[in-house]
Amino acid sequence: MEYLATLTIPFERYSGFQKTGKTVGFGTVPVMRGDNIEITARVSAKDRAESIQKSLNWYYSRFSRALDLPAHQVLVVNDPTDEVFFYDEFNCSDRKNRFLPEDVIERVIRQSGGKIIRNDKVNGSPNHLPPPLKRRRRRRTDMEAKRIVPRIYNCKEKFYHLLQRESQFSRGDFVVLSKRRSMIRIRATNLKDAIAEIRERGLEEKAEYKNNMYKNSISYLERVWCRKKSYLV
Q: Are 182 and 165 in contact, with CB atoms under 8 Å apart?
């Protein structure tokens, strides 16, 4: 498979590169595009991840020291066979999902339905280059979790158990220890099985509650809420 690796270099930086006496390699010819110099190389590789590795080797061996620019600011590699596309486990940091041209970035954002956005981070090091895309940070409102009974929430037909690991401890107006809470996913598909799973996994014992109502909420659920058939199916 043949890929196109393109470097877009500011003219003043390219002038510094010319003073080193190095050639651009790959038999390519620099082209003037506005205030930039554009260099396109044909890279043969089995997939896009390998083409990026070869393109980086090309950049670091010939241009990096003279240009003094991180690779993600000047290098893009095309995607001729649509190897980059959105799916549930899409990893923005995967090598094949880096150094994307503008049309591929817009395509992935559109396919994600808003789950993927541009990464505006510009700083980076040779070993830690920021990817062009990132997942949109999930807000609490995204979950739309509804409390159906004390400590048990439902969100998109999935059950969650609110676990308080540590209580808040204060001295006067100074908070010594902040409250720690987390939402634990329950695999059960109905409330009755969810209560059984909470007991089986020992989530009650892991929680710290000063309020007796919350401390005994699972027993409370079994006595009261489990009698309501509408919550069990």
A: yes
